[in-house]
Design brief:
With 682 residues, the chain is an alpha+beta fold. Helices cover 20% and strands 38% of the residues. It is built from 11 helices and 39 strands. The strands form 8 sheets. Strands 3, 4, 5, 6, 7, 8 and 9 form a 7-stranded mixed sheet that branches. Helix 2 packs antiparallel against helix 3 (84-94), helix 3 packs parallel to helix 5 (115-129) and helix 8 (475-493) packs across helix 11. The chain starts with 26 loop residues before the first helix and ends with a strand.
């Protein structure tokens, strides 16, 4: 697959180290020498050192058998990136001992997962599978959507292959896969454009076999329309001739009269469907019309409305206006016009549009119009765009709806109905689109991102001083760490931004300098925790770049400054240090970190004093300590999408207990919180 990481081993022989003797016969000394020998291409010698460090061969006074990111050696010294099982497995891979290599790498991952172990496990399996696997992967969708009324297509499914799925691309976007899997689920939301859309799925296994599959979907954002073309009253019953239309495919019409039994008229697959309803003359019909994409329009039809009757007379208008089931002042006024001009049609079409004013926080607005006229409708337009199809012209009544796009701020829509006599009615709809403050990045958890420490993991580091470290660095390592930090920043701020990333000029780096704390010393978790307490951010992402021969590992820890503890730890491994490899892995690191902080939205179920029950629980990813913003009930038109505030402080709750589907949280300040208010993860 284009852009995928090559499975060619990156470690190439280098000059042997100048100092090849171990003076102190301790496990970490053999481990450090083994790393130097491994990166120099001396795989046999390196494997012996790792066996000694693990106690599998004699030579050391002691042994340490657990793979771990951080281990104390002696005094205040520590070792970063201690993975003897993994490194021994890598040596055996280069020596051609595949079975032993795979066993050791799996052992390392079971003790402490690392991206470098996953990378080499993929390599070991790939060598074996290339000799025997010729089958393409399978791609199975949870469901196929032929027509959609959504703005984005939710594409869910699984890629399967006994030869392990190593790469997956959805519409050209490469998914982040660290350890190849027999089954790889995917869940993508792809933006649609009106009309036909085609997306490409590509799956590749470790043997290099590929499967490509196309997904097609038609985006239909136009609701169907209903026209009453003719009405006839006879013997106390009314015969309505209806025409249903849709730009792609109708589904069905549901209707009932006077709250009676619902009736269904199916029209699946048709763009136009004409049929008749024979109903009681008295009583309003309520209907809902659906198309196959999921759009719908609803309304009502009064069979005795004189606007639907051919050659309606003034007396019928007047009788209808005064009838208990009518009582429409507009019809009464039309009756006066008919009495004054019985020989000419000077009545304007009846035009109803709802609502005429609105304030919303969405990027589209559902605008519905209903026009009626006894002489027949010639035209119905929204901002000059004709809504009547050929089958709808001359109809006595037409009901339609449109999902009109909105610009930021004020939007105006002009709806005009014209009858066959040229009479014209007009309505102006004004909609204001506001940006929901609840989604602004300023309300997200604040995160500081110090410069990445660049270290060689073949060196033991010391935390005896606050301003210096014996960690080795190189010019190339410093450049790589700067690039990696830049790529992580870009991934973290890409929309939707999960964190409010603080800039350097927000003052937190100067705080570190004033406290004489170096970036390299943050590799020590204990020093990182102490430093986090003085950084003006809720979270600190402390990262180290660990040089691994020609490759590099990025190890990141998320520190909660209020709790003073590490709440997440993730790593990624790039087999080379070129910019494209670093960018892909940095994006993967940001993704792994963000998965610890799901961007959730729910509502308030119950309020008792400062205790608030939320509609989100542990199955949604909620955990104790999570913070949620409170926003106004979306049905409140005056505060659409607005965060609740008290003075200059926003209202938030902190989760104290979680259940499967609900959670309990505490208000952080006194505020007016109501059932139905929105909660949004900070």
């Amino acid at each position: 697959m284009v852009g995928c990481v090559s499975l060619t081993p990156p470690d190439t022989p280098q000059a042997p180290p100048q100092h090849d003797e171990v003076r102190h016969k301790s496990w970490w000394n053999f481990y450090l020498r083994g790393r130097e020998r491994l990166f120099a291409g001396r795989f046999e010698d390196a494997s012996q050192d790792f066996r000694i460090a693990l106690g599998l061969a004699p030579g050391s006074r002691n042994a340490y058998k657990k793979d771990t990111w951080y281990v104390r050696t002696y005094g205040v010294h520590h070792l970063l990136d201690y993975f003897p099982h993994r490194e021994l497995g890598i040596c055996l891979f280069h020596l051609g001992e595949r079975e032993g290599s795979e066993e050791l790498l799996l052992r390392s991952i079971s003790l402490t997962p690392s991206a470098r172990a996953s990378y080499y496990l993929n390599q070991v399996r790939a060598v074996r599978l290339r000799q025997q696997d010729r089958a393409e992967p399978m791609i199975v969708l949870d469901h196929e959507t032929r027509l959609s009324s959504e703005r984005k297509l939710s594409l869910r499914g699984v890629a399967r292959d006994p030869g392990y799925i190593n790469a997956l691309a959805i519409d050209g976007r490469r998914e982040f896969i660290e350890l190849a899997e027999v089954e790889r689920r995917f869940d993508a939301k792809l933006p649609l454009r009106a009309g036909e859309n085609t997306f490409q799925l590509t799956a590749e296994d470790l043997a290099g076999n590929q499967r490509q599959q196309q997904v097609r979907c038609i985006a239909d954002w136009v609701p169907p329309g209903l026209s009453v073309s003719r009405t006839k009253v006879e013997n106390g019953r009314t015969n309505l001739e209806l025409v249903l239309t849709d730009n792609h495919s109708l589904k069905q019409l549901n209707w009932k009269q006077n709250g009676g039994v619902a009736q269904v008229e199916r029209a699946t697959g048709n763009q136009s469907h004409a049929f008749q309803i024979n109903c009681k003359a008295q009583g309003v019909l309520q209907f809902v019309l659906f198309d196959e994409a999921g759009n719908k329009v609803s309304g009502s039809i009064d069979p005795m409305n004189p606007r639907l009757l051919a050659q309606a007379q003034a007396m019928s208008y007047l009788q209808y206006a005064q009838a208990p089931t009518g009582g429409d002042p507009a019809v009464a006024r039309e009756a006066e016009v008919l009495e004054a001009n019985p020989s000419r049609d000077e009545l304007r079409p009846s035009l109803r549009v709802a609502p005429l004013t609105a304030q919303v926080a969405r990027d589209e607005f559902f605008l519905q119009a209903s026009a009626e006229d006894g002489s027949g409708l010639r035209s119905l337009t929204i901002n000059g765009e004709e809504q009547l199809q050929a089958e709808d012209r001359n109809a006595r009544k037409h009901v339609c709806a449109r999902r009109v796009p909105l610009e930021e701020g004020a939007n105006t829509f002009r709806v005009v109905a014209t009858d066959n006599a040229g009479n014209r009615s007009e309505k102006i709809v004004r909609v204001r689109r506001v940006t929901p403050t609840i989604q602004e990045s300023a309300y997200r958890l604040s995160m500081a991102l110090p410069s990445f420490a660049s270290t060689s993991s073949s060196t033991s580091t010391s935390s005896s001083t606050s301003t210096s470290s014996s960690t080795s660095t190189s010019a190339s390592g410093s450049t790589s760490s700067s690039l990696a930090k830049q790529h992580v920043e870009e991934a973290l701020i890409s929309p939707p931004a999960r964190f409010n990333l603080l800039e350097r000029d927000d003052g937190w780096e100067s705080v570190l300098e004033e406290q004489r704390i170096s970036v390299s010393s943050l590799a020590d978790p204990s020093r990182a925790l102490r430093a986090a307490k003085i950084i003006p951010a809720e979270l600190v992402l402390v990262s180290s770049m660990i040089e691994e021969g020609e490759g590099v590992t990025i190890l990141s820890r998320v520190i909660d400054t209020a709790q003073g503890k590490i709440i997440a730890s993730e790593d990624v491994y790039a087999p080379t240090r070129d910019d494209s490899a670093l960018q892909h892995q940095a994006g993967g690191l940001a993704l792994k970190v963000e998965q610890h902080f799901p961007l959730l939205e729910g509502e308030v179920l119950q309020v008792s004093g400062k205790t608030v029950r939320l509609s989100l629980g542990s199955r949604d990813g909620v955990r104790p300590g999570m913070k949620f913003l409170l926003a106004w009930d979306p049905k409140n038109p005056e505060h659409v999408g607005e965060v609740k505030e008290v003075g200059e402080s926003f209202v938030q709750v902190v989760v104290t207990q979680t259940q499967s589907e609900q959670s309990v949280a505490k208000l952080q300040l006194k505020a007016d919180v109501l059932k139905g208010d929105v909660v949004y993860a900070r």
